[in-house]
Design goal:
Strand order of the largest sheet: 4-3-2-1-5-6-7
Shape: globular
Radius of gyration: 21 Å
Oligomer: single chain
Helix content: 40-55%
């Protein structure tokens, strides 16, 4: 395996930090070419120096001078702004682009990397949720490989490696159930920010942790799986698996099921995307089957977690509806994290945005960006109204 040069978009976030840990274990095989961050300038500087990055981008242009001055003695090139990210990912010095920026913000740079024919280690599920048809079409056109980094999609990808091309009968997408899986609906309605951020199994960023609590994260993964694996929504089934040891399963026509297992550790999926098709050693916790005990599975409660129904509705409608759903959710989750709205207000706002949106059946990429902006504005209006009612 030849050394691979890697760009990490969102290196200071949870996925980015774990990716750098993977690289630190295999310095002979992976080299950091580019690191980007939005606001975390101090951590970006430390990462760039430790991994001897060729270049960095700080998206918050107000922090450019701080980063540039710190990295100049180390001969590390510094750039600012999102356009710089889009420009640099096309560099001939980059083999793999890990897209771990949060939310819709990762779409533009991913599209540019795809157009440049890069291998994409995709951790930004919102890219395929908002513009799956467009992005997968571009990947085929430009011969860009898209490898999943989400643990569930990496599991599906690995299961398919043993299928000998057999068609998928069903994808069983596992979900932990989040922190409220055993709560009553009336108690969930009163859930606080701190309670929603207390995930029982995974350590993740705040946005994805809230998405896990609402189960919108699983909804986004349904749409991502639809595009990654060319599987219609009716063949993608969510199953609650509280232990988070089976990361997902593929069922075939004869009833046989192949599963991928491991402890909850995103580094496994990250490393496999970096090293594919090779498997490398990893300093992580290994499964001991004699100590596992029982594994539990049950169906999700769509009444307690309406995000799942909204997802299937958006997927069935198609066009720009998944983009509308995603944008409304991003705005509503941010408002919940600011403690402006309640827990179920998140999915209520998403539903209202979907119901009142301008639908486009076959949107262009420009129309996807326009849809995102219009939906954010509509969601902001609904958030203000909801917050006003709560303050009375």
């Amino acid at each position: 395996m030849e050394k691979r040069r890697i760009a990490i978009l969102g290196s200071t976030g949870s996925i980015g930090r774990q990716a750098l840990d993977v690289i630190s274990q295999h310095r002979d095989l992976f080299e950091v070419e580019l690191l980007t961050a939005n606001n975390s300038s101090e951590l970006l500087i430390r990462q760039a120096i430790e991994f001897d990055a060729n270049a960095v981008v700080i998206c918050n242009e107000e922090k450019y001078s701080e980063v540039a001055e710190a990295l100049e003695p180390h001969y590390i090139k510094t750039f600012a702004g999102m356009q710089s990210v889009c420009d640099l990912v096309t560099s001939d010095n980059i083999d793999i682009v890990l897209t771990s920026m949060v939310g819709f913000s990762g779409l533009a740079s991913t599209v540019d990397a795809v157009k440049a024919g890069k291998t994409i280690a995709l951790a930004n599920k919102e890219t395929l949720v908002a513009a799956g048809k467009i992005v997968m079409g571009l990947a085929e056109k430009h011969n860009a490989r898209i490898l999943p980094v989400d643990s569930e999609h990496s599991a599906i990808f690995q299961c398919l490696m043993g299928s000998a091309g057999a068609p998928i009968e069903k994808i069983h997408l596992t979900a932990s159930g989040g922190p409220f899986r055993t709560w009553k609906r009336e108690d969930i309605a009163k859930a606080t920010r701190a309670q929603a951020l207390n995930h029982p199994n995974w350590s993740m960023g705040s946005k994805i942790t809230i998405d896990s609590a609402t189960m919108m994260n699983k909804g986004l993964e349904i749409i991502e799986a639809r595009w990654l694996f060319g599987t219609p929504g009716e063949k993608i089934q969510v199953v609650i698996h509280t232990e988070s040891l089976i990361h997902s399963m593929i069922e075939y026509a004869d009833g046989s099921v192949i599963a991928q297992m491991g402890h909850p550790d995103m580094r496994e999926a990250i490393q496999f995307a970096f090293s594919y098709p090779f498997r490398l050693s990893l300093d992580n916790r290994k499964l001991n089957f004699a100590e596992l005990g029982n594994l539990s599975f049950f169906a999700p409660d769509k009444e307690k977690f309406p995000a799942l129904s909204l997802t299937y509705e958006a997927l069935e409608k198609g066009g720009n509806m998944p983009c509308i759903m995603n944008a409304a959710n991003e705005a509503a989750v941010a408002a919940f994290l600011r403690e402006e709205i309640g827990f179920y207000d998140i999915t209520d706002i998403v539903g209202e945005c979907m119901a009142g949106a301008d639908f486009a059946a076959d949107p262009s990429l420009d129309e996807i960006f326009e849809t995102n902006e219009l939906t954010l504005a509509r969601a902001a209006e609904l958030i203000r109204k909801t917050a006003g009612r709560r303050s009375l």
